[in-house]
Request: fold
Amino acid sequence: MEGKVYDLLVVGAGPGGLSAAVTVRARAKSVLIIGNQEFSLKLEKAAHIDNYLGLPGITGKELASKFRQHCLQAGAEIVEEKVKNIYHLKEEFQVMTEKNNLYRGKTLLLATGVTTTHALPKEKELLGRGVSYCATCDGMFYRDKKVAVISYTQEGEEEANFLADICSEVYYIAGYRSEKNLKEKVQVIIQTPKGILGEERVQGVDLGEKIVEVEGVFIARESVPLEELLPGLAMQDKFIEVDRNMATNVAGVFAAGDCIGKPYQISKAVGEGQIAALSAAKYLEEKNREKKGEK
Amino acid sequence: MSEQVIVITSDNFEKEVTQSPIPVLVDFWATWCGPCKMLTPVIEEMASDLTGKMKVAKVNVDENQSLAAQFQVMSIPTLIVFDQGQPVQRLMGYQPKEALLDSLGKYGK
Reply:
């Protein structure tokens, strides 16, 4: 297995993740931040921030750019890629992104912000039995069949257009309102899906008032539901469960910011990011001592 | 070593999988699939790790559509474990080697 093994991998480029990166660099640990641009979108969109200490009236955009600069100056590395999967191995964590890049780290910080996405009923059960997350991988299995793309993001349009050349009919069930760039063959439905239907195989999508009969359902989301990202991660409602050290129930995994609970405030995320980074540094040092002790 | 991963087609499926005296791990893949390509080196490593315990094989779904249809492969990569000719376990998507061996349970040991 190739690739650098970072001391800390941070998922999320918002205030919590960036603050953690600065702190962990001060402890001379290597850090990589993997951020979907959308994660810091909330901060960038804020017109005025009036309660961040010492910087009254600063715009979200300015603050985000200062945070980012500070991180880079401190020697953190940042990549802009959407995280698709996290693997927990014995001695390390591996984060796979949608570009199929694999990043390796000794510890992990989840600072994903609030994700509103949750799996649809029957989505998991029917995965590989009609449900897919990759049109280019699995489209060929649905040649001349009816399929639906359930999409919460514009990226889903590419998937639908790809499928339009292969499948007999393509329905595009859009969870967002902006203008769509779709081939003529694709039929747009603006409705929130209630769930996926089928027992052994996908039979359709439940839209509440009506059912769309299809054999394949492709799902495109802005972010993967948290509970699916790292199997075994303890949640409390929709938030990641942590202790006062920002440690989750998985050894070596920490969490900070909006993804661990309210209030959704920048200063809270920054503070939690710092605690999480110190905890991660301590964890790494303990591990190192254990290893030395073994020798 | 890569030569230990057996290439399965409709012609040798019966001999290499159905009649195999030991369990067989079959990787259904295609050239156009990114996660499949990532899985290739993992599968090759597993072949040498599991020598004698389990046979490791791969099926190109593009060239063997009937095999993919027969085992209802509708998403790739899909790994299917065959024991005494019967599909007994199914794993989907890329996973690192350690995670895969873990998921294989008694077959991975």
The longest strand of chain B covers residues 86-92. Chain B has four helices and five strands. The beta strands of chain B are 6-8, 24-29, 55-60, 78-83, 86-92. Residues 36 and 77 of chain B are 5 Å apart (CA to CA).
